[in-house]
Amino acid sequence: xxxxxxxxxxxxxxxxxxxxxxxxxxxxxxxxxxxxxxxxxxxxxxxxxxxxxxxxxxxxxxxxxxxxxxxxxxxxxxxxxxxxxxxxxxxxxxxxxxxxxxxxxxxxxxxxxxxxxxxxxxxxxxxxxxxxxxxxxxxxxxxxxxxxxxxxxxxxxxxxxxxxxxxxxxxxxxxxxxxxxxxxxxxxxxxxxxxxxxxxxxxxxxxxxxxxxxxxxxxxxxxxxxxxxxxxxxxxxxxxxxxxxxxxxxxxxxxxxxxxxxxxxxxxxxxxxxxxxxxxxxxxxxxxxxxxxxx
Length: 295
Known about the structure:
Layout: H1 3-6, E1 14-17, E2 21-24, E3 28-29, H2 45-57, E4 62-64, H3 73-82, E5 90-95, E6 97-98, E7 106-107, H4 111-125, E8 130-135, H5 144-156, E9 160-166, H6 170-177, E10 182-186, H7 197-205, E11 209-210, H8 220-233, H9 237-248, H10 261-269, H11 277-284
Parallel strand pairs: 3-4, 4-5, 5-8, 8-9, 9-10, 10-11
Antiparallel strand pairs: 1-2, 6-7
Helix pairs in contact: 2-3, 4-5, 8-9
């Protein structure tokens, strides 16, 4: 059996999200299958489609995207490559940001925009209900409660299976949970960027999935530390970073993104990588000043 055939996201174990959505704990983030600046179509559409198809072959059962990735492009490619979707595949998307141009992101979490964004996602993904719909970010120009209430209403209408949050504080999570059950939270988090440490703990205590983005630290000392562990384990730094996340908490579902089949296989292979406790502790001690939340 070849190395590629033995790679499986199932090696990461499973997590049941929202009480009825069981996924393998190594997911896939579909932001990078778009063009430069997360804008427009990918430079190599065939490679992007092949990468998406390979995710399900590797037993990835959670794909994370957003209406603003492209915009629209990521969702369209997911449907083009995978529809009709295989049984057990969950797709999480987001609404609440608009895109005036490459590399540009502006807030719009008004109930009107969120409703329109949701309807657009349904059409592009060719589904009647979104498995997990995330508020892409709180909007200072709109009442946070109004934003969450609009998603709760769409859930009541059967258009959203589960409501989730992205780039939030613990206060946001608690305020949202007074309105609607929150099944997952997505913040920037890694072995070297632990600003959301206490949110991971909160999620674990409350059976809320945590989807970390930017799994590699940016500081020089972080890269030095992880390269040493990677060399010891005959793995790549990103594989070690992903394995650290899996070990950190049973509710963490990493969602590394790529537009390359080769890199996808490398990432998913981390599902079966065990980081020894001593190495885990060394990486856990690495930290650096947080950057602004965005992604």
